TrEMBL record:
Name recorded for this polypeptide: MULE transposase domain-containing protein
One Pfam family from the record: MULE
Residues annotated as transmembrane: 361-383
Keywords: Membrane, Transmembrane, Transmembrane helix
InterPro entries, per database record: MULE_transposase_dom
Amino acid sequence: MNEQKRPPTNILNILIHNKNRGLYDERIKLPNLDQIKSLIYGSNRNENSNELGPVQELVQKLEIKNYDEFVGLDPNKVFSFGCDVKTGSDRHHCFMFFSSKKLLMNINRKDGKPGIFHIDCTYKINTNRFPVIAFGQSDLEGHFHLICLAITSHEKEIDFKKFYQTLIDLCLMVNIQFSPKFVVQDGCDASKNATSIFVDQPNIIMCYFHVIKNVKEKTKKFNKTLIEMILSDIKNLHYSKNLIEYEVNKHKILSKWFFNYPYLKQFAAYFIKEWIDGVFNNWIIFTSPHGFAGTNNPVESFNAQFKKQFTKFAPRSLLDCVKMICNEVIPVYSESSREFKLIRTPDCKVKSIANKLNDKLFIAASFNSSIVFFYGLNTISIIDL
C-alpha cells in the first residue's frame, strides 16, 4: 500500500483528478483527507509492527535496572530506562528513553544554583511519525547541554508525565537531585500540565519567539507599518525589567491599541486572552533567571543540528531511528559535551557598545557593593554583579 510513499494530500488530489476524468463510478464517494491519513498511517504502523521485536531486543540490552549497573557504565555509553515499546496506537502508547552517565550529570550546575531547562519535540525523524523529545539545560552563554532523548508515539499529557516520571525515577535511583525551577517550552498544554507531577512545580517560561510567531500569524493581513508597530510594542513589553515597569508598559500599549487604533480591538482582545491573562504569560524577560535564555533557541538549534548531521532530513524506520540515537547521537553529544559556562563572555558587539557608555553614569550602591545603578537610556537600571 502506497509503495511510492505519496503524502495523503497528493493521494486525495489524484483521486479527485481521476474521478473528474470519469475513471471512477460516480456513485462511489471519495474518501476525505482524514480517512486517507488514517488508512495510510495505520497501514504504516501495522507494517512497522514487525520491527517491534528487534526494537524491544535492542532497548532491553541497553536497559539499566539499578544503581550498581549505572555506576558500572562507561561515562559515554548509552543506556535505556523505563521504556515501554508498543505499537503506538491510541490504546498502546510507545515510549523509549535514552541517555548516558555523562549527559545525565548535566542536570545539576556545579555552583549548585538553579538552572533553566528546555523541552521540545522534533519531528520527521522516523517513518512511524513518533516525535523525539529533547531535554536539556542551557548555560549563560546560551549553549544547550543535552540530558536525554525520548521517543514517544503521542504528545498527550500522559506521555509527558511518563517522560518526567521516568527522569525523576532514574535520578532517584542514581542519587541525582532533580527539581527543576524553570522550564522553557512552547505553547503545548500537555507538556505544561505534565509538570504537575513535581512536588515543587517549576515555573514554565514561554518561549518569546513562539509568542512572536503566533502574533505574526494573527497580524499577517495587517499593513506592514501596523505590524512593525505591534511587534515593536511587544518587544518593549518583553524587555520590561521588573513588574512595575511591565505594568506601566502594558497599560501604555493596550491603551494605544484600544483607543488610537479601533480596528485593533479584536487583536488586542486576543493578545490579552492568550499572552497577558493566559497560562503562557511568563514570556517577559524578568520572569526567567538573569542572563539565561528566555527562548527555546538552544534546544531548537540542537533539533536542527540533529536533522542536518544525523538524519540528513530523511526519516528512518523506527529500528534505524533507535540505532541512530544509541550508536551516534547520544555517544557524540556525550563525548563532545562542552563546559557549562557560569558567566557570560561579552562579544564584540557588546564590547563596542560598552566603550561608548559614560563611566560616570554607573554609580555603586552604598548599601551593597554588588549592586550598581546605571543612569542612562532615559531610565535607571539596576545591575546585580
